[in-house]
Amino acid sequence: MMELLKNLQAYPPFSLLDAGAIKEFEYAGQIAYYPLETILVEAGHAFEVLYIIIKGRVEAYHDDELINVYDTHDSFGGIEHLKQHPSNERYIVSEELICYEIPKHIFLAVCEKNHAFRDYFIASLVERADLLKEKQEYSSMSDLMVSRLEKNILQDVCIVENTSDIKKALQMMESQKVSALLVRNQNNFGIVTDTNLRYYILHKDEQGLTTIGQIQTSPIISAKEGDLLFNVLLLMTQHSIKHLPVLNDKSEPVGMLELIDLVSFFSNQTHLVTAQIENAASLEATIEASKRVIIMIEALHSKGVKSRYIAKLVSEINKKTYTKLFDFIIPKEWHEHCALILLGSEGRGEQILRTDQDNAFVFADGFIPDDVEKISLSFIEALDDIGFPRCEGNVMVINPKWRQHAADYAQLFDLWVENPTPNYIMDMAIFFDSVCIAGKKSLHTDLREELINKVQQYPILIRHFAKSIENFDSALGLFSQFLTLHKEHKNEIDIKKTALFPMIHGVRALALEQGIGVTNTYERIKELNNNGFLSREDAQAMIEALEVINTLRLHAQLKQYNTKKVISNYISLSQLGKMERDLLKDALKTVAHFRKIVSYHFQLSMVG
Amino acid sequence: MFGSFKNYWQKRKLKDERFTFLFDDPPPDEFVVFDTETTGLDCKKDNIVSIGAVKIKGNRILTNEALHIYIKQESLISQESIKVHRIRNCDLKGAITIEEGIERFLYFIGNRTLIGYYLEFDVAMINRYIKPMLGIYLPNKQQDVSSIYYDKKISLIPQGNIDLRFDTILDALALPRLQCHDALNDAIMTAMMYLKLQHSHSLR
Hints:
Number of helices of chain B: 7
Largest sheet of chain A: 6 strands, antiparallel
Radius of gyration of chain A: 29 Å
Largest interface: A-B, 21 and 22 residues
Number of strands of chain B: 5
CATH architecture of the domain at 467-606 in chain A: Up-down Bundle
Strand content of chain A: 15-25%
CATH superfamily of chain B: Ribonuclease H-like superfamily/Ribonuclease H
CATH topology of the domain at 467-606 in chain A: Four Helix Bundle (Hemerythrin (Met), subunit A)
CATH class of chain B: Alpha Beta
Oligomer: heterodimer
Helix content of chain A: 40-55%
Distance between the termini of chain A: 60 Å
Radius of gyration of chain B: 17 Å
CATH topology of chain B: Nucleotidyltransferase, domain 5
CATH architecture of chain B: 2-Layer Sandwich
Shape of chain B: globular
Number of strands of chain A: 18
Number of helices of chain A: 26
Number of domains of chain B: 1
């Protein structure tokens, strides 16, 4: 067999073919050479052959917009053949091309016989990712995330009546060797664990405690059989509980989940880090514990946990860290009159590795905090110690602009909406993405609502706001230009500017316009689907695209972290596998499609 | 002028009328790239083990009608040469006689211009067989990719020594390297070199 074909067989979709099909290709295929700028197929014309790139690069344009780039081992024309459809795009050689050409009828004949091969071409973005997962090229990718709460991980549950004698109940606990009891009461259920027993021992005489119902914790936090284990872990982390009763569809208890079992299932640092932060008795201990988050991130990532779940968990842990810092550093007098808020990526709960800190104080009107300067500084210094790089845009409490009274912020908002300069628009964006993490929540909630109301009064303002998605060229546009323009980033793309930002900002603009309250981009996309703005397919494709982009970014950043390089947003294309490049390309296509939706919706071409 | 005179002379010597097509004018945009695997480097003593050839038409390499034949050997192939071309005795199962192989080769190339890498050697190997069979040497025009490469390169570095190794040329032309060296794969790679050289104005 020709070596060229043998090489091709190492990559999907050709890895799906058997020897017979490869032979058919061999008997019919030809190698062709095309110099730079040859137009292979015009938009509106039919493909004659299936192109498989041996060496070189081809770009596909739709109305002068670059929407796809094909590299070595990629193929194109397949889907058009199968759908008997002329090309939507114009294909131009952008780097001298040597390609293998397979006549249409041979390709179709092989597709007819080999459905897995055919389906590869037909598969949509999401389906293709699944197909590859099935092929186990990412063997461990999914098992953790798709694991659900099943009986085999649960301990037996021991149920006692509300009115049972405490001693008898404890004897039952001992004989059945369980570490928690479920108590049936009028509320449904209560739970008794070590904590309750401690309470019993300390207070039994003075309060005359006799029945188990008197010391139970009720109502209970519980999970449903079949819940995703990851969400269960999140739930237990959130509430800091070690025992979680699991109920079935009819709300009957089926077992008790012990944290230790769940943790050993995940066997990573999650619980350890959470516990350390939670139990930290000093500022120093908090800082030390928080430094361990990166180890946990690596463990989760290497197990193939989806980046959006890692982000969720990390932001949950960060929340605990901030609460601790707040308690240790911020004077007690402030607590009722001050809100600590996180903005930007932290506000959206999307920061995984520590890339920057964006925080602010909101003070209640009339409250005069002492030593503001000093306290703010020590707060930021604690974050420095943990390893949060300072914010380049200076969105931090050490900047007087970001520690003001509520009324002053409101005035600032007026300034923003009346003079929507690019800087003010960015300020608006990060404030829109803010959450209150500690202190008096209502201070922040009211303020954010006010900002949204103000912005919504000026429809033209939202269009200016949305306009920033055009700040950076389409990712695929930069893709090819990198080779010539950016010497120091040859073969790399800035994933944040070209893909992540347009997605996040577009979604943000739509959320602002439609008054969607949540800050997380995934949640916002879901809301945009719920209210009918985005179709289900679009929303799903966007979530998948975001996931691909975030995972690749995290992967590259962890590598940079481990090799002690500066953490950047560049992704090296040459280090991506074929599948990753395909997924990235599809993700970038989705971003381009979404940009069009946003740009059409806000009629951005008419915004100056 | 001299070439056509020589061809005329050769044509008169041709013993087998079936092959007069070898002397027709070649089609302008068709070429044949070929490579042979031999038992050694002495074109007087060593034998052809395999011939690989592909046609080039315009900008296309017609791999779908490639020729790849193995030749029956009178004696077993020696250990040393197996190490070079990796053709073991057991790989010669579908092999044909050298006479049949040469005839098929001639029908395949027709009157087209021949292209190869150090073509001289391969042509000399073929000539050794067709001279007694047909009374002639290969009359086809010949182009060697190593000399085309040399000409393009020498204009850049007039005094330099130019590295003409196969892999060096592949790298210089940024062509993919195929691991397996058999006659057909080498012919295909040489064909890619040729197409790329035709379109390269300057080399790095």
